[in-house]
Structure formats: structure tokens, C-alpha cells
Amino acid sequence: MLAKLWKKVLMFILIVACLFNVVIKLVNNISLEKELLSSAQYIQDKQDAEKAKEAEDANKKEENNSKKTNTINNTKKQQNTVVIK
């Protein structure tokens, strides 16, 4: 008999807790429009960061290629001057 009473009391507490949880979620619910806007802004920021990084990497690669080209040209000039002497 005592077990049935505890079961009913705990069941009542569980139901009240679930209802309380649902009501809190409904009251504090962010509108769908705000959620979509914040998600879109986040994705846009990520894409902008990736593009900036790709541009920076391309610039570094171009600088390295120009340095290699200058080194090769300088080496060829040195070889030409040795041959002329």
C-alpha cells in the first residue's frame, strides 16, 4: 500500500516536472526567423573566412614562385657572366 502511494506521488512529481519543462521551452522559444538569420550569418562568416584564407595562401604561393623565378634568373646571369669572362 505504501509503495502504491509513493508511486503515485513520484508520478505526479514527474508529470509536473515535464509540464514545467515544456512551458519553459515554449516561453523562451526563439523565433524561427531569428534562428535562421543567425545561422545564415554564421555560415556567411565562415565562408568569408575561408575565402580570405585562400586568398592569403594564393598570395604566399605567388610570392614563393616569384622568389624562385628570381633565384633562377640570378643563377642564369651568374652562369652567363662566368662564360663571358
Element layout with pairings:
Layout: H1 2-27, H2 32-84
How is this structure best summarized?
By secondary structure, this protein is mainly alpha-helical. 93% of the residues lie in helices and 0% in strands.
What does this structure look like?
The protein has about 80 residues and is an all-alpha fold. About 95% of the residues lie in helices and about 0% in strands. The N and C termini lie far apart (about 115 Å).
Offer a few descriptive terms.
85 residues; rod-shaped; mainly alpha; 93% helix; 2 helices
Mean pLDDT: 83
What about the largest sheet?
Answer: none
Per the principal axes of the C-alpha atoms, what is the gross shape?
A: rod-shaped
- Rg over CA atoms: 35 Å
SSE string, helices as H and strands as E: HH
Distance, first to last CA? 115 Å
Beta-strand share of residues: under 5%
Helix content: over 70%
Structural class: mainly alpha
Spans with pLDDT under 50 lasting ≥5 residues? Answer: none
Number of strands: 0
- Count of DSSP helices? 2
